[in-house]
């Protein structure tokens, strides 16, 4: 144990370090062997000594150390102040009636740094992808704004014409002004939606009405649909509520629907159906189409970045969709479509235990 390449320390029931090997001293950068004044919590502040009194506590620590889930690592304090992360496993032993714990402390700082870098990269990719698709979307939004703004102008001109008449008709004028205001609100809505899609906030999960989340992005999707004479139907029960990051889920829906609209033509009118059905702990969403379905060549690596059959396609869309769904604790799958084309299904959780 003294020569072990891993840091090993023995602590008593109070958490005082009673012996340590050379690797532990080197790792923490201090003398631990001849002193009984250093507690394990001085070195690993979140280490919970009382929790290890029971076998369950010990099992929890030991199985947590081996699991692959996030949050299993503990922050360690080293002399000199450099930050480190460790995984700890423990075993109980007794000497002359006194209980001790041997702690096997593994330095996982490099692993944590790599995980953090990967997470940063994922966020960056999500952000860049959102901006790229927004670049394309900007022209469509301009198109969408054009219509309500022209309508505002028309209604105001009509009101002005009425005002110039010798006989003023206030009711008619009021009606034109109200119509102009309604159209201006629609334009403001398009802009609001664009701003929220551009927001860099990620990971904010709040309770949301699923139908509303989807309906909010429909005007954007309808622009594509109109150009292709496609039909998008939303069938989500009114009461469906989930915990989600609204913007991310909207991004996910936009991408799946746009993929459905991008699918090669089959001769029949394009149809896309966005539906949801309740499942045990939430709602299962399905985005399906009546296109030709996913080609065999792509099916095997559908969610891999760079897998694309489109000229100029980046193949990032579905990979990002998967990142978003996984960030919500679920999985996204390519499943058979009742419409005959491709379908993508994922589940969103209704609410967390504490909600
Ligand atoms: P991109 O859209 O840039 O190609 P994606 O990751 O979104 O990237 O999609 C990868 C590939 O999966 C597409 O190029 C296409 O071949 C296929 N695909 C995705 N959705 C559908 C769909 N609804 N119907 C047919 N093929 C699809």
From TrEMBL:
Gene3D superfamilies membership: 1.10.287.130, Histidine kinase-like ATPase, C-terminal domain, PAS domain
Query: This protein's superkingdom?
Result: Bacteria
A GO molecular function held by the record: ATP binding
Catalytic activity, reaction form:
ATP + protein L-histidine = ADP + protein N-phospho-L-histidine
The entry's keywords: ATP-binding, Kinase, Nucleotide-binding, Phosphoprotein, Transferase, Two-component regulatory system
Task: Supply the EC number(s).
Answer: 2.7.13.3
Q: Where is the Histidine kinase domain?
A: 140-352
The record ties this protein, via InterPro entries, to: HATPase_C_sf, HATPase_dom, His_kinase_dom, HisK_dim/P_dom, HisK_dim/P_sf, PAS, PAS-like_dom_sf, PAS_4
NCBIfam families listed in its UniProt record: sensory_box (TIGR00229)
Q: What name does the UniProt record give this protein? A: histidine kinase
What organism does this protein naturally occur in? Brevundimonas goettingensis
Q: What is the lineage of its organism?
A: Bacteria, Pseudomonadati, Pseudomonadota, Alphaproteobacteria, Caulobacterales
